[in-house]
Structures are given as structure tokens and as C-alpha cells.
Amino acid sequence: MSLRPVLAQRLLAAHGCVLAGCVAAMAGVAQAASVQVEVLDTGGKPLADAIVFLESADARRLTKPLPGVEMAQEKRQFVPSVMVVPVGSEVLFPNRDTVRHHVYSFSPTKKFELKLYTGTPSKPVLFDQAGVVLLGCNIHDQMIGWILVVDTPYFAKSPAGTGKALLDNVAPGTYKLRTWHARLPVGAAALEQAITVPATGMATVSVRMAGLQP
After folding, report:
1. What is the mean pLDDT of residues 185-189?
2. Of 56, 101, 108, 173, which has the highest C-beta tally within 10 A?
3. Does residue 29 carry a pLDDT above 70?
4. Which residues contact 75 (CB under 8 A, 6 or more apart)?
């Protein structure tokens, strides 16, 4: 018996397995949905600069640092004044003013100090723990900034006008949807509710934030 037909059959079978694996992998990638979170105040008005994020054990394993993150100082303000980064991200604090700044944080999540400087510090600050970081300037008391460090790749900030934050490419599953705003009392936990994300399409949810300070 010739070996050629046998080898040909084996090659075809192997090729079929590879194709099947590719199709399965592609199907897995396609299994992702979007989540739109409308954030409102107690009066029902859209709320800007709220951070929404989805937490789960699987999401935690997918978390990766975000490259090239900056929180600048411009016109004696932090820009942006509120940002969100995943755990492990490094943030640069370029000073684009003509005066020197002294950036610091005493927050338990991340304590650091960038003493009086101009330009951009040579080393970024590593945010290696989830939580809220309140920033200040030791020279300009009116300068306040916030960094929320999250242990998930699924996060977004609500825009002005609509208050609707969009999270794309979310794997299907059950999550804790958490919503945080800088006007919550210091130390207050983010709002929390359960949400199930479908395999495809879009899930929509509305969140009303109570207890915000003026």
C-alpha cells in the first residue's frame, strides 16, 4: 500500500483541525459587546467626568498598563482634572506653565512627591494599586486633581452634555458595574450594581448618583 494517500489524508485532517481552531478563535474574538452607562445626578441631569468600570475575576486577569499617560499642569490646573488608568500604568506630570509646580499625593493608594520643577520629570509615577488618588500642588492650593486606578480593562469617563460613557469590546459575563465621581465624599466607595453583558450587541444601564458634594 502506498503511503501517499495516507499522508495526504493526515495532512487534510490536520489542516481541518487548524481551520477549526482558527474559526473557534475568531468566534471567541467576536463574542464581545458594548456597554453604555448613562450617569445622572439626583435631579436626572447628565453628569460629566464620572468614571464607570466593570469588575470581575476574568477582567482582573486581562488588565494591562496603559502606555503614554500624562496629567499636565496648564494655567495652574491639572489637565485633565480627572483621569482613570489601569493598575500598573505609569503617568508623567509635565509642567507646561511658566511657574514651577510641586505635585504630591498623600493618598493611601499612592503616596508620592514631585518637588518644585519645570518641564517634564524624567521618571513617570507608577500606579500599582487600585484606588483613588487625590493630587495637589504644594505651591498652588487651588490645584486639585484625581486619578482613579482600576483593576480592569473595561473603563470609561462620562462626557459633558450626555453623561453617557461607552465601554467597547467587553467580553460577555457577569460584572460589578462601579461608578465613581470626584464629588463623592473623600473615602466614599464607588456605587455598585450587578450587570450581565451579552455575547453581542449593547447593554444599556442608567446610574443616578446621590450624595455628591457641591
Report:
1. 90
2. 101
3. no
4. 97
Write down the pTM of the prediction.
0.85
- Domain of residue 110 covers 33-209
Beta partners for residue 161, in sequence order: none
Same domain membership, residue 190 and residue 89: yes
Say which DSSP state 30 is in: H
Cα–Cα distance for residue pair 124/92, rounded to 1 Å? 5
Residues 154, 67, single domain; the answer is: yes
Instruction: Give residue 144's Cα distance to chain centre.
Output: 20
Torsion of Cα atoms, 94 then 96 then 101 then 107, to 10°: -40
Residue 14: pLDDT over 50: no
Contact between 110 and 129 (Cβ < 8 Å) = yes
Q: Is residue 122 one of the residues assigned to a domain?
A: yes
